[in-house]
Amino acid sequence: MTSGESFYGGIPVFRGFTSLMDPALYAPLPDDWSIGVADIVDSTKAIAAQRYKAVNMAGAAVIAAVTNALEGREFPFVFGGDGASFAVAPGDLEPARAALAATATWVREDLDLTMRVALVPVSAIRAQGLDVRVARFGPSANLSYAMFSGGGLAFADAAMKRGEFAVPAAPAGTQPDLSGLSCRFEVIPASRGLILSVLVMPARGADPHAFRKVIEDIIHLVERSPDGARPVPPQGPPLKWPPQGLEYEARTRRGGPLLARRASVLAYTLFVYLIMRFDLNVGGFVPNVYRRQVVENSDFRKFDDGLRMILDCTPQLERALSDRLAIAARDGIVRYGLYQQDAAMMTCFTPSALRSDHVHFIDGARGGYASAATALKAMMA
Q1: Alpha-carbon span 126 to 132, nearest angstrom
Q2: How do 13-14 and 307-313 pair as beta strands?
Q3: Are the C-beta atoms of 118 and 160 separated by less than 8 Å?
Q4: DSSP 8-class letter at 9
Q5: CB count, 10 Å around CB of 276?
Q6: What global pTM score does this model have?
Q7: Tens digit of pLDDT for each residue in 217-229?
Q8: Under a CB-based contact definition with an 8 Å cutoff, are residues 217 and 334 in contact?
Q9: CA triple 115-299-151, angle to 5 deg
Q10: What are the helix and strand counts (H, E) for the chain?
Q11: How far apart are CA 309 and CA 323, in angstroms?
Q12: Which residue in 221, 214, 42 sits closest to 115, CA to CA?
């Protein structure tokens, strides 16, 4: 076990999301670690062109590429819709750097998008008077997700956008190992009225205790209300064949002409569709168990210096959340963005369907997180 694994693996997992803002749950990253950040340049334009799946695929590709480069070693990460953030130990820095560089090239060549990538030393963040602290939230017994606090991720993201700590893209034709990355499920329609993308960040100079209270209020509004829940239904998301994400999944494959990769994905996804459609237990794979795990492992709420949620909720709950956030914004405590749409979408990272720790990244089906971020920026203008 590497020192990185022993540090992150040694952080206790907390289960109740309402405890999210408890400082005692967060452990400071070692000073010699680094923060990786990535995002899509002009994601708003890509979303306006209805390229939602491509944008989400790019963000999830960062996590898949780094995970595979680290040979499955556990590390803290968070999916942000049009990008991702993560932390790595010194021994994992160079494999992570190579994975980031290769992913930037793949995103440009295969998705026709531009991705910024950077690696920021934790020591450089602390030199700014900020911190990077990490907690582990367990949505189920299957796995845990990282949560970040301290302001360090927000600093790293802003530094990347200024061109600092940049990781140059790999040479043309370089492809990361994206094994396990897919987007086979259909969009998930809202069942309570709307899918709400929520992004809440602290206002500049906001009192940390006041910000914590607002986040706790928002979480309690959701947790205590029958009007809001995870966007993934108990039976799992809809699955059809051929899948909507066929082209993207074909492009994640390495080697051979694209036409052959498309044919291979078509054949494989038909096999998977038939197994799921007729509930066929094959080689230790049990469809109903996998469906349950997909629901439990859906990453629809997180904290990375700010609260991110994708909720299936009623208009009444949306108004209650909006009213509470408007008051907090007026008081100079938060900046926020809300974005309504009629469906959610899922991008999956399943290194092995026989393991229970596959992860499923949720976003609004109309570019929810990126659109909420646009609304947040408009509030600041």
Answers
A1: 8
A2: unpaired
A3: yes
A4: H
A5: 18
A6: 0.94
A7: 999 999 888 767 8
A8: no
A9: 60
A10: 12, 18
A11: 17
A12: 42
